[in-house]
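Progress report, Aim 2. The chain analyzed during this reporting quarter is listed below.
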Amino acid sequence: MAEIVVIGAGLSGTLMAYELVPQLRKGDHLTLIGEDPSFHFVPSNPWVAIGWRKPADIKIDLTQIVQRKKISFITSGAKRIHPSEKRIEIEGGGELHYDYLVIATGPELAFDEIPGFGPGHFTQSVCHVDHATKAYDAFEKFCAAPGPIVVGAVQGASCFGPAYEFALILDTELKRRGLRDRVPMTFVTPEPYIGHLGLDGVGDTKTVLESELRERHIKWITNARVKAVTDGAVEIEEIAEAGTVAKTHQLPFAYAMMIPGFRGVGAVRGIDKLTNPRGFIVVDQYQRNPAYPEIFAVGVCVAIAPVGATPVPVGVPKTGFMIESMVTATAENIGAVLRGKNVSHQPTWNAVCLADFGDGGVAFVAQPQIPPRNVNWSAKGAWVHLAKVAFEKYFLRKVRRGESEPFYERFLMNKLNIKKLKQSA
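Predicted structure tokens for the chain:
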């Protein structure tokens, strides 16, 4: 019988473990490795950072849930993977051997690549619930003595939605507190234009997001490379098409939140033929590593080539539904291999996203996420905020119940022709 291991207990890893359970044969064993017992709903972190949610509202203890599903749970994290030996070193000592491995670690946040950058220095983050909690404490202090705000992302980032969300919900919250007129705001991004999102736009996101920033009196700098951060200022180079420095900026701030660049985690970074130079897992169309076919990968840790050349490095986001399509394909493929069959399931990488602005938002559908697309649609309205609140509650309920895709969700998405798996040729 087979030992299957999933590394990572975030969105992709938790769903991966849930979807693998029905694929197991009698006697197969599944282990989930996380860094702590808790799952937290990352899309709600911007709300935590301004006090609209408490950390406890978006955290779930997975211990009893996975125990009920007969999944072994290690909460000390993976230290290093040794693919040629099919062995995993565990943080704090010990090791685990596997027959099949799914890497779902998410990224390592590369704050150290820019001097003075990150929660340990002068800027805030919403990439983890603990960062968002610290960002909220800093925001409350800021509101007692308002000043300029800088929000955005730095070179190498591949998750731009939360940066736009945070800028716009900050605008909403500051208006509610009667402070907006005392707070100049600037949005800083490596994207070549507003609304690029690492995807060369989706529908008319360029016009929609530019319009939102203008209406809310938020200035912006694109093609931005952050050189350093000091206590109260961000040093930025604005890069021209040819790669030369077109302009420099010294932006003052009393509060700053910027999404960092991503890289692969230390457990896998630098493993020949498993990862790319940035440490992301190389996979084929079946989510399987070509050099080590017993290893699969899903989620943000997967290597995806940029959509096109840009003056400043811009990564490709791995959005929620896109990740779920990776998970479903991987579960089906591992189930096939366990039964002596060939892998055949390919994810669609379709994307369905809701970006909340506090008093509205923008939604988009991209099929597939990487262009060219069969569907390329975006729209905005107050309904998006309500939809995101409803989705948060629905997703947390799924995790608590130990479900990945209830039948009614599958029915609805099929009716909308938004599928997780490509149709067989």
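The first strand starts at residue 3 and ends at 7. The chain has a mean pLDDT of 96. These observations will guide the mutagenesis work planned for the next reporting period.
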